[in-house]
Each structure stands twice: as C-alpha cells, then as structure tokens.
Specification:
Elements (H helix, E strand, L loop, with lengths): L1 H11 L8 E4 L17 E7 L6 H10 L4 E7 L3 H10 L4 E4 L1 H9 L4 E6 L1 E3 L1 E6 L9 H10 L2 E5 L4 H12 L8 E5 L6 H7 L4 E5 L2 H7 L3 E5 L12 E5 H6 L1 H20 L1 H12 L3 H9 L1 E3 L5 H13 L8 H4 L6 H7 L3
Parallel strand pairs: 2-3, 2-4, 8-9, 8-10
Antiparallel strand pairs: 1-3, 4-12, 5-12, 6-13, 7-10, 7-11
Length: 340
C-alpha cells in the first residue's frame, strides 16, 4: 500500500515546481546482423507523467534507437508542468490530455498533436455502502431521489468531463443531483471512499482499480458512452519545433507505432512494464490495464465534443472546437502506418 500511495502522489501533485527524473537511452545501430544503418535523427526530449496509461512513453526510448532517435525521457508531476516545460523549451514532446491541448489553444499557445496515446483510464467508483452494481442507473437515480451524494473529482480533468457527459446522458444533472467536490489530487480519491466522507469518486487508473480491489469501492461505470468517447492522452509539440524537426517527429511517431504494437500483442510484457514503472501489485495493474487501449489516432471528433463540454462547464472561455483541426497533424501517423 505504501508503494501505491507513493505512486498516486507522484501522479497527481499540483505543485508548480517540476520534479524531473531523467534517464537517457543511448543510441545504438544494428549493423552486426546485416541490417541497414538507421538514419541518425539526433535527440528528442519527452515529458510525461507516470501512469499505466503512459506505458508507450515508458518503453519508446529503447524502441527509438531503431528509428535513429536518442530519447531523453523526463517524468513530471502533472500535465500542467509538462505544458510549462514545452513552452519554455525544456522538452520537445509532451504527453498531455486533450483538455490541456484545448486550454493551450484557448490561450493562443500554438501546440500541435502529432499522435494519440492511449484511451480509457477513467472510472466512476461508488462506495460499497451504496450496494450498487455496475451500470445500475435506476438504482443510482433512486438513491439520488432521496439524498445528494458527495462525489470527489479533480475539477476540469478529462476524467471529470467524460463522467459529467455520461451522467448527463443518463438524466443526472451534476449541478442539481449530486454534490461534485473538487479533490484536485487524484491520489486522495481512494482515501475519500475509504474515509466514508464521499459516496463516489471520478478518478483514473490505477487508482480506480485500487479502490475496487481493496474492497472500499465498486465499479459503477466506465464513462465512454457519449460522443466524447474514451479520450485520455496524446502526444503534443510546439508548432515552431515541428517546423524545424519534421524528420524527428516522423521517427518518433514511427517508434510510438512500434511500441503500441509491442504492448498490444504481448500482455505479459505490458504487465511487466507496468510493475516496473509503478511498483504496484500485479492484480491491481492487470485490472487497470484492462481499462486501457492504445490508439494513436487523432480523436478529432471526440476532442471537438470535449471542447464543447469544456466551454459548457466554464472550464474554457470559448468553444475552441472549430480551431482544433488546425492543431492536429496526421501526416506522421499516416506515413508510419502506410502499407500496414
């Protein structure tokens, strides 16, 4: 449990200071086996947050060697810190949620998505005391007709917006029917159920699986049934960097494509990587990874819906949906998947 708590805190601390753990993967060229020498693309700096949803970022530095890349991988506490590091030029590529891309566009920061990452990773978990089964919407509405439930959520997160959309789809008004309380640090969500102070949490993996497997919570639903889909994270760069480093971007997306194939086809390796990354128990991680899928597609229609939701909920000052297509560049993924 100590490892789980430590990992959860590392996932979600909202301090502005960056705590970066850097490791550099040396560049090697496979010539002894008779393979053609890979074109050298030079270094790329990647910023990401430790999460089971970001296993591609964890293994891509080694795979990047085959694509001529020397990838310097840096862990940050939050996506906000990653955005700041991108603007300052500390890193070249960042793993962000679509909501962070939306906020960048809103603030006239010229970020461009070059690939998706993973989908899923969100869970709505209810207290065991409510005696609700998965997707028991009728049961939930009956409880809500009698009292408001206290719901812990990280305000403005991708997880919260997907959950709000799902609740609304089933006729639950989050403004009137529940008491949605901002608990910014995701690491505190399992404890919110554990303490009995909250009836429900809207959270991410592996914390939703942790709350379920430790016996304090029950999975109510995965909120993927709306037009926003199961969006989670993507790979983003600054347009100015991209203009000067198209070859690096192409090699990087090619490495991502290979990494996604590796993890999708070898679940044992996927679990081993998750254990190595997080230090958490395999049963928790297996459950978390079941709520995760690798999809490098742009997710543009879903992001446009998310932008509408963000504006509707006053998490952004304007609806940037019409602008999003100008901030998605598919040419690298199209080239990486051509002929496959």
């Amino acid at each position: 449990m100590r490892a789980a708590s430590s990992f959860a805190q590392a996932l979600t601390s909202y301090r502005p200071a960056v705590r970066a753990l850097t490791f550099v993967i040396g560049l090697t060229i496979a010539t002894a086996s008779g393979q053609a020498q890979t074109t050298q693309q030079g270094p790329v700096t990647l910023g990401w947050v430790k999460s089971t949803a970001n296993l591609l970022a964890f293994i891509v530095p080694k795979i990047g060697e085959k694509h001529g890349l020397k990838i310097e991988s840096i862990n940050f506490n939050t996506a906000v810190d990653i955005s700041t590091a991108m603007v300052s030029g500390q890193i070249d590529v960042g793993v962000l949620t679509p909501i962070h891309l939306i906020r960048a566009i809103e603030n006239k920061i010229d970020f461009v998505q070059i690939a998706g990452n993973a989908r899923g990773n969100t869970g709505i978990v209810v207290s065991k005391k409510l005696n609700l089964k998965e997707n028991d919407w009728a049961g939930l509405k009956k409880i809500l007709s009698e009292k408001k439930l206290k719901v812990a959520s990280s305000r403005g997160s991708i997880n919260e917006l997907l959950a709000i959309a799902e609740l609304s789809k089933h006729g639950i008004d989050v403004e009137k029917d529940i008491d949605l309380i901002n608990v910014a640090n995701f690491g505190q969500h399992p404890q919110a159920l554990r303490s009995g102070d909250f009836d429900m949490i809207i959270t991410l993996e592996p914390l939703s699986s942790l709350a379920i497997l430790e016996g304090t919570g029950t999975l109510f639903t995965r909120p993927y049934g709306t037009a926003a889909g199961d969006l989670n994270t993507n790979y983003v760069v600054q347009r100015s960097w991209l203009a000067q480093n198209a070859d690096k971007a192409q090699a990087f997306v090619g490495a991502l494509k290979e990494a996604s194939q590796v993890l999708s086809s070898d679940k044992e390796r996927e679990l081993k990587a998750a254990v190595q990354l997080t230090g958490m128990k395999p049963d928790i991680l297996s459950a978390a990874l079941a709520n995760n899928r690798y999809d490098l597609g742009n997710g543009l229609p879903e992001m446009e819906e998310l932008a509408r939701l963000a504006f509707e909920r006053h998490y952004s000052t304007r609806n940037v949906a019409p602008e999003l297509k100008q901030h998605v560049d598919d040419r690298f993924l199209n080239a990486a998947t051509a002929g496959r």
